[in-house]
Specification:
The protein is of the alpha+beta class and about 200 residues long. It is built from 8 helices and 5 strands.
Length: about 200
């Protein structure tokens, strides 16, 4: 969303918010409108700025971001898509534990970075229907920095619009996080329980 350089932009948010796993990407729903998607993103960004300008830090800040992700983003779908093939072989208990750990990971990772965005501005410019939902285009302006474009992918889950991915200057958050999660899974020896334990302390 709001990042001061290309490197940070590529690794940015909340959860808050998923991946290039197109096979599991949800399809568009006729119930989702461009106006509804814009409304969601306006509410999401307003909530984020309210939190980062509140002065909260550490666990209190991460708790707020976890609330934001659970309210506005398809956390379970993002978590599933980000993990990829290992999701299919996990037990139901492992899947539940992973989704919960993933939500905490996003909250910590992006909660820390959002503190840098105090005083920034974001403006929704347009929204268009695409094959897999609605893409909402916004403009982000950091103090003393050139504006940059962030696009938010929104899809409908039973008449409940949710953010699924975001693109910072064309870079997919899901693709970036899939690489991060995949690397962590590999470092855990491909062991799901060990991976989940590590994820609980990552971010």
């Amino acid at each position: 969303m709001l990042i001061s350089n290309t490197s940070n932009r590529r690794s940015f948010l909340l959860g808050a918010a998923a991946t290039a796993g197109m096979a599991t990407l949800p399809t568009a729903s006729f119930a989702l409108t461009t106006a509804g998607a814009e409304k969601l993103i306006n509410a999401l960004t307003a909530d984020i700025f309210k939190v980062i300008n509140s002065g909260k830090k550490g666990p209190a800040l991460y708790k707020e971001f976890n609330r934001i992700f659970n309210r506005y983003a398809a956390v379970s779908a993002i978590a599933r898509t980000t993990l990829g093939p290992p999701w299919r072989s996990a037990t139901n208990d492992q899947k539940e534990a992973y989704v919960q750990a993933f939500g905490g990971y996003l909250s910590r990772k992006y909660g820390k970075r959002f503190r840098e965005f105090i005083g920034a501005e974001i403006k929704v410019l347009s929204a268009k229907s695409v094959k897999r939902g609605v893409l909402v285009k916004s403009n982000v302006k950091l103090k003393g920095k050139s504006p940059f474009v962030v696009e938010w992918q929104v899809f409908d889950r039973g008449n409940n619009p949710q953010m699924f991915d975001l693109y910072i200057e064309g870079i997919s958050m899901i693709k970036t996080e899939r690489e991060e999660i995949g690397s962590l899974f590999d470092r855990s020896g491909g062991k799901m329980d060990k991976f989940i334990a590590r994820l609980k302390n990552a971010g």
